[in-house]
């Protein structure tokens, strides 16, 4: 019996495409044996392992994005794609100044958003042990003290997902046990290899890493921070994805991590790429476990993983 593992990468709003992929798998009666997520991939994957149904995850996420508590955060102002052009000039100007002032104030703290805001945001998540979920699940976070990536297979779903998606400088680090944790994407962009650690014998990776296209020269510190993060994630994903048996890339890689207003379209992009690759996905699910194990072994001998 095949043990399909899903490796769901990070990417902020782009990671909502994972929901679309899961909706297609549900429709085809394909249930993953294990899911390992990073950042938004941990959030979507954890909710799916909890609910066991992609539509319920979609409803939950869309409801959360529409919640005034979320919209009040003004996350879209942190994106490098510019401001809301429908606003009047002075509205845009005060948004700009307010964002910069909050950024300056955060220099004396760990992050742009404080602990109280983070607690309210993540309180929506179920506070249940991940080892009790119906599907094997783990989440990647990065320990600031040791620099190691931690693959959490036990603990509170709420705390572990919050740690895995604590974007450095945006959300405060999370203390779990003796770790001081931030976003898993700092060390692991698409956790293709780590999902094997929780029982998968074949890996479908969903890569929503930002496209590394040529851009105009950065104009300020925010532009430089976003650009360096894109470059790091891109090159890290190239290495990590060698351990996947099949990689699919939703058409969202041109978007910013803050583009939550495009959630419906992003989810649809996940559905589109999964349907396009459905034949390959089914072949992967149906392949002989021994052949896959042999191929993976040969890859290791060649140094490909």
Question: What does this 3D model show about the protein?
Answer:
By secondary structure, the protein is of the alpha/beta class. The protein is 43% helix and 12% strand. It contains eleven helices and eight strands. The chain has helices spanning 17-27, 40-51, 54-66, 68-71, 89-105, 115-122, 157-164, 221-240, 263-276, 278-286, 289-302, and strands at residues 4-8, 34-38, 136-143, 149-152, 174-176, 179-183, 202-206, 246-248. Strands 1, 2, 3, 4, 5, 6, 7 and 8 form an eight-stranded mixed beta sheet that branches. Helix 2 (40-51) packs antiparallel against helix 7 (157-164). The longest helix has 20 residues, at 221-240. The radius of gyration is 19 Å and the shape is globular. The chain starts with a strand and ends with a helix. Mean pLDDT is 84; it is low at 81-101.
Strand content: 5-15%
Shape: globular
Oligomeric grouping of the chains: single chain
Structural class: alpha/beta
Report the uncertain regions.
81-101
Number of helices: 11
What does the main sheet amount to?
Answer: 8 strands, mixed
The arrangement of helices and strands along the chain is EHEHHHHHEEHEEEHEHHH
Mean pLDDT reading:
84
Q: What is Rg?
A: 19 Å
Number of strands: 8
Could you estimate the helical fraction of the residues in percent? 40-55%
Distance between the termini: 24 Å
